[in-house]
Q: What sequence folds into this?
């Protein structure tokens, strides 16, 4: 899709920074040289140790920096940016991504051609292994495990997923929606803090009658887990905690009982044994902490999304 700058709709690009200012600056540099020019860029700083404002403005002078007094997590940080956004389109991106030309135009094209589009994600390649797919859509969440997988993950990109398609979930590292749709759906659920919040959000979009799309024409590069680490106890805790939480909020009976039985009889013993054998004490603590959070909050009003 080709648009002249003077008629191109404003796109609000929102990203969250947490102690990774240099990485965020690399994203800003890629935005500044991107083919789509009518953008406002909002960086929400999630209470980093040092104020990144000066460095961010040096990389992208027009950037709007919002400093949160506390770390509000992925959803909370993005929500601060969404509230401040003034664009017709809102593009949430991880700060460890880099843009390619045509990225924004391709995503917009889906909204123009598909009135039922609520959210669109681009094709993801690994930044450090360009040409290798990370994401070309998502499989559905398995009722037994509460897990799902990305379509095409780690495959060489030979055009095998080059077709626009509805998918189960957007990729949290890059997802575009519109201000009009957000007025109906609402903000990202902040109860998760980190991981699974975009899945829950997508379920809310779908319950409002919107579809989630994967756009092969748009490409983004992803450096992957720059803030949390690829294999950290923090990641273990939130993935465990929020996998259970997601299933509690979004899976109706009797499938929810099936998941809880599988969790109790298989997942918990298996993972506990693996962490013990690997002598990963901190991961074991984090795993059980995630389970116990759900036990302690079993009476919490979660505002479940299913009957």
A:
């Amino acid at each position: 899709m080709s648009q002249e700058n003077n008629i191109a709709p404003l796109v609000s690009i929102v990203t969250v920074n947490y102690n990774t200012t240099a990485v965020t600056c690399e994203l800003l540099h890629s935005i500044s040289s991107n083919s789509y020019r009518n953008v406002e860029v909002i960086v929400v700083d999630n209470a980093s140790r040092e104020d990144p404002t000066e460095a961010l403005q040096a990389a992208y002078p027009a950037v709007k920096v919002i400093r949160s007094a506390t770390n509000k997590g992925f959803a909370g940080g993005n929500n601060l940016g969404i509230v401040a956004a003034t664009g017709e389109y809102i593009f949430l991106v991880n700060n460890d991504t880099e843009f390619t030309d045509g990225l924004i135009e391709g995503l917009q094209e889906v909204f123009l051609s598909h009135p039922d589009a609520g959210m669109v994600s681009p094709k993801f390649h690994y930044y450090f292994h360009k040409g290798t797919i990370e994401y070309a859509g998502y499989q559905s969440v398995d009722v037994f495990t509460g897990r799902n997988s990305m379509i095409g993950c780690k495959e060489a990109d030979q055009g095998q997923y080059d077709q626009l398609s509805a998918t189960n979930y957007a990729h949290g590292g890059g997802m575009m929606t519109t201000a009009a749709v957000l007025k109906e759906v609402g903000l990202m659920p902040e109860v998760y803090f980190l991981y699974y919040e975009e899945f829950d959000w997508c379920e809310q979009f779908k319950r409002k009658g919107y579809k989630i799309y994967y756009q092969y024409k748009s490409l983004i590069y992803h450096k992957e887990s720059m803030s949390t680490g690829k294999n950290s106890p923090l990641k273990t805790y939130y993935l465990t905690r929020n996998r259970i939480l997601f299933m509690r909020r979004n899976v109706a009976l009797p499938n929810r009982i099936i998941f809880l039985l599988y969790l109790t009889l298989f997942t918990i013993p298996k993972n506990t044994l693996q962490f013990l054998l690997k002598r990963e004490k901190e991961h074991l603590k984090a795993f059980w902490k995630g389970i116990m959070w759900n036990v302690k909050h079993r009476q919490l009003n979660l505002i479940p999304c299913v009957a």
